[in-house]
Amino acid sequence: MGESLNGLKRSIMCGECREEHIGQKLTVMGWVQRKRNLGGLVFVDLRDREGILQVVFGDEINEEAFKKADLVKSEYVIAIEGELVMRQSPNKGIPTGMVELKGESIRILSESQTPPIYIKENLDAAENIRLKYRYLDLRRPDMQEKLVIRHKAAKVIRDFLDENKFLEMETPMLTKSTPEGARDYLVPSRNYPGKFYALPQSPQIFKQLLMVSGFDRYFQIVKCFRDEDLRANRQPEFTQVDIEMSFVDMEDVLEVNERLIQRLFKEVKGIDVQLPIKRMPYDEAMAKYGSDKPDLRFGMEINNISEVVKDCGFTVFKGAIEAGGSVRAIVAEGCSGMGRKKVDKLGEFVKTYRAKGLAWVALKEDGIKSPIAKFFSEEEMNNIIEASGAKTGDLILIVADKDEVVLQSLGALRLELAKQLELLKDNNEFNFVWITDFPQFEYNEEEDRYVAKHHPFTMPKKEDMHLLESDPAKVRAEAYDIVLNGEELGGGSIRIHESDVQEKMFGALGFTKESAWERFGFLLEAFQYGPPPHGGIAYGLDRIVMFLSGTENIKDVIAFPKNQNAACPMSEAPNVVDEKQLRELGIEITAKEDK
Amino acid sequence: MGESLNGLKRSIMCGECREEHIGQKLTVMGWVQRKRNLGGLVFVDLRDREGILQVVFGDEINEEAFKKADLVKSEYVIAIEGELVMRQSPNKGIPTGMVELKGESIRILSESQTPPIYIKENLDAAENIRLKYRYLDLRRPDMQEKLVIRHKAAKVIRDFLDENKFLEMETPMLTKSTPEGARDYLVPSRNYPGKFYALPQSPQIFKQLLMVSGFDRYFQIVKCFRDEDLRANRQPEFTQVDIEMSFVDMEDVLEVNERLIQRLFKEVKGIDVQLPIKRMPYDEAMAKYGSDKPDLRFGMEINNISEVVKDCGFTVFKGAIEAGGSVRAIVAEGCSGMGRKKVDKLGEFVKTYRAKGLAWVALKEDGIKSPIAKFFSEEEMNNIIEASGAKTGDLILIVADKDEVVLQSLGALRLELAKQLELLKDNNEFNFVWITDFPQFEYNEEEDRYVAKHHPFTMPKKEDMHLLESDPAKVRAEAYDIVLNGEELGGGSIRIHESDVQEKMFGALGFTKESAWERFGFLLEAFQYGPPPHGGIAYGLDRIVMFLSGTENIKDVIAFPKNQNAACPMSEAPNVVDEKQLRELGIEITAKEDK
Q1: In which region does residue A157 sit, left (phi positive, over 0), alpha (psi from -120 to 50) or beta (all else)?
Q2: Domain range spanning residue B565?
Q3: Contacts of residue A7 in chain B, CB cutoff 8 Å?
């Protein structure tokens, strides 16, 4: 049931009513946040996208409206005409709190059943229920705000890139399955039974082709797809801000992107990002923070103490170094008094990162306490303390193993300790850093070959070019990531535009000319016809909006997200389809759902 | 092979060089459009996105550069440093024609094989070759211009809608198969073997849910998908400008959209669209133009002459009227002398629209000529002439049949004649019209039931509401299309927000409550919780850009389009995939490609 507007026009949004409108006849429309009948008056809090306005109905204002207003319930949609007046008892907690509307007539546009979730800020309801009734969840002002921020962010990005002569260009959604990537979502073709399109994991190849075409500066805000098992903050479809430029080197790409980031955080969040954004080579990030996306809002850097323990009597340390590994430490400031149980838990924690154990040295006021103290002379122990950079009151935490294990486990331990010690509580810093000089390759043990760390079209650094064939592991790439507070916001590279470099690159990846063409044929073909020097970057928009709106849940910044099983409890996608549809596509179901 | 930039920076685009830059040292980069060696000088036309610049190399300018410049070929990518000077022999045909660059150094950034298609305006190459080498086809300045227009159009639309408080919101690409629509593209689910996502045909349901959520004003420029057999100017993936508003009626939607259209055509094309845009009810459009997307740039309206022939002796006319049909005519001005062969061909033409034949009356200076003259008295013939609105020198063309056949065939004949008679030659008019008052239903003979002409959530007109159950065929809808020069640019409607109206609507469509819920469950569920009055529109962006860029080929406004078989000759999508991928999805191929 419901009345219709019948030509009635809204004159103002609820949340926009202010003292300057007092005395005006206004028409507002929205949802009933709550209704109270108090002392012969009906008070309705009316909600729209802009906020909440109090409307008061009374016998003396309009008897008919008063009676009808008393019938409304939460989430009814109503339209009210009346005069805006000074509010009797002002509410300074809301922007409209100085005024109220005297309800002279009311129209009930639609009714509502009792909603299964409360429409209020910071709701603590089960995620499944929130997703099933997403349209109600999205009525919550804090949820709406996040999507308003998303709109603004996309708008600022587009404005900036347009001003800087980037053209937004659409690339295909129905494309070819990508080699060397994550798992593709496939789309069966009806015209070519037995063949499939793939949904794009990124427009990488297409944006490079657009550079070959001479479009010079391209961008796109675009959906991308990966059919991977979902971890927290991963969604099967996600939105990428994709950028590519011609006739540039890394400095050019970084420069324009720094201005983009500055503009974005200023306009949407009011934050001044200081330029230039600092840079850190990959090797330094790994050595100091055990991560290629270091959180620089706090110190607790990793220190290599191998040099001072390499000749010690403690076989665990000595053995690790002799096997080509290292011994490294982080210092938990003021934690010398940490209880044994807690320290043991940290030991368990590093084991999940393949460390065999965690050695510790507590520098208490009354002397050193450490289970490994007995293996060291006083001088050796002093050297360890000095090399770790610890002082009285601190706790030194040490891992000895292969470099990879040491760095990864101490990097994770560093973040874990920051959480436990609440080092980032009330920290409002936005700490950006470019990570540069990534390795060109990483060794894939399963396939027993080098694979591209970024992708096979990434330009090696000029000074490492001579190592492409002789020592691929040492080759660094013209690749860069932008990291904010320990999260990767985006990454990119300068691409190879010289065919001889590209051939060497494929050689290092173990491809023959034929197998390279089989995989990347149309891009390689295009590169025979004058590719310009080019490079670019891609950002995760969802991730950016999470920062801008202050949420740690990716689902909060997506209007209709999927759950952890890549399903939508609201629409019930994915779902069964008709036999006829499958017949037309020339496919058949061989395995039924067993979940 | 190729040199690298090595820090060299472009200082200006080729196409931007003007007399004001004379005397400056400039660095330009781009593609060699052509190279000539004339009288001891090498002339290179260098091309980038902004245009072409002449560069001259000579022994006396720089010998090394001169020699190297002589090595370059078409489509090589080069960088040149030099001084901009006044051009010896100005070329007023291009914007940079007053200047030229004295090439003091040259770097060959990459070489090019001889391209398989010419890089020049208005190329007349086979479409398949153009699509296979799309990256080269897109180097042509006229192709680039169209995609620049596309970028601008999307930007203007976004700016306007943002200013008018619309929020751009993304809706899912992986969603549920739609009932009652075209054929869906399906995406097999790995997490739920045997189940499928569908790619959206439009975000219709999601945008309505966003209105239920209270977002008030939504838009999105978004890819949509239909797996239909492709006709000219159809693509399997197309881009929609999707808009929805709350607390509005039709006038509100039309008003804001007229301003959007005005702004778009003004900013991108420099055309003043006069507001308000005229409106025409569906019935009038059909009666006068035999089409719900009439081209109003010329007259040649259809006239109903049933009244004056209903009692005549010509059984074809009389019979058609007695069977409930009609006799209608169009007048080809000044065509009384059209040859018999040509007229016969028009007769063949209307037969493809199921007309049984085409009667004609030629009003020659020396009297009437018509094969059907013998069936009519002089008075009857004069009545026909008068009812048709013909004058001496004209040719009357008449079809008698069921209304539907008469209108459709005469509507098509009208357009065909306009083409043959070149009525629109040199016509630069942009003739917009809103078609309103669409029928709510159309009868589907195959299913023997009424189906929604727009969609099942379209609001019937208030004054026709009482006919929903008794006479659905007569019910008109609050639906509207925007038509430009005979092409539909977009369409929309006010949606039903009252549950009782929605129930009657489903009744008229032959759904039980259960079957309606099965198909539209989550939208109906959402509507139980206070839906606001709302309505919207969706435009085809590709179609709009075709108008803005003056092309009749949809492929020209899409960077990487598919061919008529929904395939991409460049990427070779769709393609075969690994057995392993199919196994993971729990599907198997049953029919192999037989094309």
Answers
A1: alpha
A2: 142-274+538-582
A3: 249
